[in-house]
Each structure stands twice: as structure tokens, then as C-alpha cells.
Hints:
This protein has helices at 47-63, 75-81, 130-147; strands at 8-9, 29-32, 38-41, 88-91, 95-99, 107-113, 152-155, 171-175. The two termini are 23 Å apart. It is built from three helices and eight strands; from the N terminus they run βββααβββαββ. A five-stranded antiparallel sheet has the order 4-5-6-8-7, covered by helices on one side. The protein has a three-stranded antiparallel sheet with strand order 1-3-2, with no helix packed on it. InterPro entries: Histidine_triad_CS, Histidine_triad_HIT, HIT-like, HIT-like_sf.
Amino acid sequence: MSGRLVNLLIASSPRLLGYAVGFSPATVATKSTPFGDTRSFGKTSNNMADEVAAAKEAAENYKSSDGDGAGPATVFDKLLSGECPCTKVHEDDVSLAFRDINPQAPIHVVVIPKNRDGLTKLSNAREDQKDILGHLMYVAQMVGKKECPDGFRIVINDGEHGAQSVYHLHLHVMGGRQMNWPPG
């Protein structure tokens, strides 16, 4: 299982998140999704380029939003409202952890604050948000220990050059295989 990496191609929307599938890298298959469409799953060489393109587009959308620091609505808002389904791993009064629909490792969980409160990216964090930032790290640690007992990586993408494609602060918890270094 250590060499297993699942890549997901989403023709209609590359950043919808919420459920995970488990195909080996050599497998290419289609599957009906909870969103009512069919998607292809399998290893592709375009995945990194797609993520960078999605990040650039998201950065432009964020920059052109109303300027109040909140940014435009995101897919995470749809998950939190129940409009889009997700596979929850952990939920409490301030955070939600769910499986990433575009996993970059055999285990890939996303941790988000339920109330964005201007936390579109880590570099926007204010001093009064230290408690929620600490809570998100603690939840990521709990999820990592439970899901990836042999070790895990926590990633926060920040801004366009950090390849952030959803402007609602989120932490990626990844494991289930040996991670490589350097990562990027």
C-alpha cells in the first residue's frame, strides 16, 4: 500500500471535495458521484498542472472579490451548509475534517474552521484567531494519529504561489505511504 497514490480527474469541477475512492495508480475507472455526474479516476501527468491552474484561477477570483477579506463563497461553504455531501472524519463545534475528493496520498483528510471569519488563508490570520489556529492543528494531529499511525504530513497552502485553490483556510493531513522530501 505504500506505493499507492490516488489521483482524481474531475471534468466538471476540479475542486469539489467530500468523499474518497481507492483505486491503484494503474487503474482508470469511472464512477457515479453523489453530485449526479460521472468522473474518471486514475493516475495522470496533468494533475500537478491542473492544481496550479486551479490555484491561479482561485487567486484571481479571490483578488477580484468584494475586498472585505472574506473572499467569494467556496465549496467548503457548500459542505458546511449541507448543500454538498462529504465523508466526515471529525466534527466539533468549530471545525470539520473530511476526506479529500482529490487525494494526493492514500489517506488525505482536510480540516477546516466552520466559521471562516476572514480566515481565507493563513497569511490573513489575526492575533485574535490564535485559538482557532491552534484548534485546527490539534484536530489535524488527532486525525493524523488515528488515520496514519506510522506518520503523517500536515500541509497548508497559502496564496497563489503556495498553490492554494480554495480560499477558506484549510489543513491537509496526508499519510498512508512514505512521504518524499523535498515536497515541492
